[in-house]
Amino acid sequence: MCAECGGKLTACWSRGKRKKYPYYLCKTQGCMSCRKSVRRGIVHNQIEELLKELVPRPEGLRAFKSFVDFALKRRLQNHDQNKRALDNEIQELHVRRRRLLDKIVDEDDEDITNALKERLKQVEADRILKEQIRLKSEQNGKRSSERFEHCYMISSSPCNIWKNVSLSVRGAILRACFKSPPQYLIKRGFRTPELL
Ligand SMILES: [Zn+2]
After folding, report:
1. Are residues 116 and 90 in the same domain?
2. Helix axes 58-106, 110-156, angle to 10 degrees
3. How far is the centre of ligand 1, averaged over its atoms, from the C-alpha of 51 (Å)?
4. Which of 79, 121, 127, 139 is an S-S bond match for 93, by CB 3.0 to 4.6 Å?
């Protein structure tokens, strides 16, 4: 964000002789910094410096980690319980399906056979639905433990994470660390940002 006008700095590329260079530019008409630019590398190095200062104290980090562990454990326990219940229901539906098939094979009366086939269809539909639910909840479980992991990693060292992720994720890290987008004064650098 431009410290002069509060507008967003625009990311651009300038054409050098051999290479293109990425840089940031304020495009707000009438702003003191309008059309002034700064190399992207310079801005990003300074962001790294800002993030380096954001290392939490060890005792705070320990408390946070134990909270994350606790929440994750609770979630996994719930998840296991749900999974076991679903497994049982699916197993039960398999048994009912087999029984119905046996009955259909043994039955001579056409009306009864049709009624049994109808019931079989319902049992099958029920089983497929339950299996889909089980699959979805497995995927959700995996995603949520990854989210917890990220949450912990970011809080322990925002700077290291920032260095190793793509530009789109970098924005999310800055939003997680600072109250508002850090303000950049072109040719001078960042103003001290407000933390969350
Ligand atoms: Zn500006």
Report:
1. yes
2. 170
3. 23
4. 127
- Please give the distance, rounded to the nearest whole angstrom, from the Cα atom of residue 187 to the centre of ligand 1: 12
Ligand 1 geometric centre to CA of 87 (Å) = 59
Helix (H), strand (E) at residue 40: helix 40-52
For residue 165, being part of any structural domain is answered with yes
Instruction: Flag whether 3 is in a domain.
Output: no
Please give the average per-residue pLDDT across 179-188, as a whole number.
84
Instruction: Tell me the whole-structure pTM to 2 decimals.
Output: 0.52
Residues 66-79: what's their mean pLDDT? 84
In-domain check, residue 13 = yes
**Domain around 127:** 59-156
Q: What is the pLDDT of residues 130-161, one digit of tens each?
A: 999 999 988 887 787 777 777 777 777 778 77
Percent of the chain with pLDDT over 90: 33
Q: Let me know whether 146 and 177 are in one domain.
A: no
Residues, CB-to-ion distance under 5 Å, ligand 1: 2, 4-5, 7, 26, 28, 31, 33
Q: Say how many domains are in the chain.
A: 2
One domain, residues 122 and 164: no
